[in-house]
Amino acid sequence: MQSAHPGAWWVLGLALAVAAGQASSFVSVAVVIAIALALMLSFRTSAPWAQSARFYLGLAAFVLLTRVIFRIIFNGQLGGTDIIFSLPTLSISLGFGPALNLFGDISAATLSAATLDGLRLSAIILSVAMANTLANPRKLLKNTPGALYEVATAISVAINLAPQLIESIQRVRRSRGLRGRNKGIGVFASIVIPALEDTMDRSLALAASMDARGFGRRGNLSLGTLRLVRALSFSAAVTLAIGAYLLVAAYGFGVLATVLIAASLVAIAIVIRITSRQSVRTSYRKLSFRLVDWSLVAAAIAIALWSTTFATAFEQVLRS
Amino acid sequence: MIKLTDVSFNYRGVESPVVTRANFEVEAGEFVLVCGPTGSGKSTLLRIINGLSPHFTGGNLRGRIELGSVDRTGAKPHELADLVGFVNQQPEGAFVADTVEDELAYAMEQLGRHPSEMANEIARLAAALGIADLLDSPLTSLSGGQQQRVAIAAALSAGQRILILDEPTSALDPEAAHEIISSLAKLTKDLGITVLLSEHRLERALPLVDSVIVVHGDGSVSKLAPTDALRENRLVPPVVELSARLGLSKSALEPDELRAKINAQPNLLKNISTDASALPTQPAEFAGLNALEVRGLSVAYGENLAVDSVDLSVERGEVLTLMGENGSGKSSLLWAIQGSGERASGDALSNWGETQKLSPEERLCVVTMVPQRASDLLFLSSVSAELEDSDRFAQAKPTSTATLFARFAGRVDPAVHPRDLSAGQQLALVLAIQLVKGAGVVLLDEPTRGLDYEAKRALARIIGELRAGGHAIVLASHDIEFVAQVATKVVVLEKGRIKAQGSPVEILGADGLLPSQVSVALGQPGIISLEQIRGTQ
Lengths: 320, 537
Prior knowledge:
Largest interface: A-B, 43 and 61 residues
Helix content of chain A: 55-70%
Structural class of chain B: alpha/beta
Largest sheet of chain A: 2 strands, antiparallel
Number of helices of chain A: 10
Oligomer: heterodimer
Strand content of chain B: 15-25%
Radius of gyration of chain B: 24 Å
Radius of gyration of chain A: 25 Å
Distance between the termini of chain A: 46 Å
Strand content of chain A: under 5%
Number of helices of chain B: 19
Number of strands of chain A: 4
Helix content of chain B: 25-40%
Strand order of the largest sheet of chain B: 6-7-8-3-9-10
């Protein structure tokens, strides 16, 4: 079976990440994690970029554990009467202000808040991991707008170099053993330097091969268009910054902030559209958005909407 | 098709030019071999033609370059992408796609060809290079030879009329290398593609090319007919050398051709005298002194047996050579003998006991190894730093390593960065470092890879000295002519098992499993190497 469009996976992944960020109950977080894990495990292939799934699972677990452990250490006795277990309090006087109290009585409320926090972060990680595992970066590259193609290529090259670097390090490490030293200062450098040189050589060879096959060819934009593009991108950046600031600062400019951000996004879209015309590139067997992909996107929109609006209401109903 | 007029090139900060006033012309459909000693500037000359030098490598270009009778001096590689295809040494590092088909489409996509033309073009090239069955395969699943074919097809897919290849066969075994060069010859004949190929092992390409460009190393470049090109001592492959000793005015390029000439004029043989005893032998004083005993050694990777219960014994003063195709288990066997490599079962006993049980430092006193990429062992920023560090670590007298290195490589500027040494000098440096603790058993994995004929002769001399000094040497190599020069025993591996073993004359002789060029050309029993042949004039 042909996998869904990589773009659709990313839209879904980002929607799940938004949902996870908004989630304020265990149920919502659990739903997000369940969806991400189920998709990741059932559609995973043996491709190189899919090998990172294990790493992401580990990272998610690590983040969750760290969050809970830190909360137990920097407990702060935020209250709650339902104490689950007590640890001896460690009081550290800093010489100024109140003493810092570590450990102490751990209440169920503290623990569950920490777990929810940790799960929320893990859910965001797993959502991105889902997209990253299932979307073929090279196919995604074929469908990037012309203006972003060079950037996307750089990212794709970087993704491909990571496994090569690991392979080089293993090879050099094995060879280094032949000189009779496997430990001690300097061994790290002696492995990393040749391995990095190797990776550097390989990426240069790749770049030369791409250049020789026409990568980087582009048509010309007229000077007027070029000026328009520059002016538009600059103002879009400024507007976006102001909009984002207003949104976060919470002075009650919510509507204005939304309008500004929307305007800057439109401007960015126009810039990408214009500069893409410069590209001469075509695509062999370009992936089209099929029904499957549209349904994934629809699901993504539903999840995002649900998480930002209905979920809060739903959770309030649950609580009452 | 290609015309260079007064082209000179030098890298920034380097005074001596790599290429000085090169003038030559290449016709459309010509198959040209570019040769010269290692580091002479073959790669640079090739890269000048498609603009990678100076645009990619940096440097300063003067003169005029015409491609298809249009002045393209100073054009960037991607501007020439529809005209010149480029193939590198290691294809797997230069692939951009996942599958063969997408890889072939890449150049056409970049040049904005209409998607409807692409399928036809891909099918045509896949058929020409014999990869039509592989179109849907992932690139990583291909053998080295198949990968190189895909790289060639990908370099021609946008209709390029000129193909440039920089040592495309250096990582392949002789069989796969031969196939690649034959398919290049076919491309020039059937499709009229102009091909420029650089290659170390001239004997592979010489019989098939139309002309030869020699890069002399002092910056001068000359274009000659294949038979005239090889007067230069550093470049001469065995058949050409043998032709010269026989007194042929027009050199033969293939062993069979030379054999035919000798059959036609038996008088030629009067010009040489042969000495069957001139092959390397074990010095008498070391006879019977066992240095290494390998019993039932197996190496497994997952389910696959890379080495399957191999038995070997090597005495002091012997040079045992492991031969066989890529993947026949030569490297795995060497690593297992050294002791740090994986081993499923079996023993490798040195005079100090089982090598696997020795610590890494102890091993250096007993059994030492130079891996395929010798430069992996070098990590300091100058030759002198490497030499001093080696003395310190080995707790040897100062300059011990330097003395060994000088013996192997002659005088080398100690301030040079090890990466800037030639492949032969790097090998000598690593060998000196690895031998300073006095190991009696020396393991060499494909030591001739990337060496030109002169560097190979130097290496053969070093191996001869080690043998005379009582070292036991085990080396893995594809290079039949080199093996004929150095080996006292040959073992042929196939799929991890010993397929044949015997003296070099038995294996490399005319009736053997892997006959050398000299054996084929002369057909005299016991004569396998140029070392055994003297001119009588």
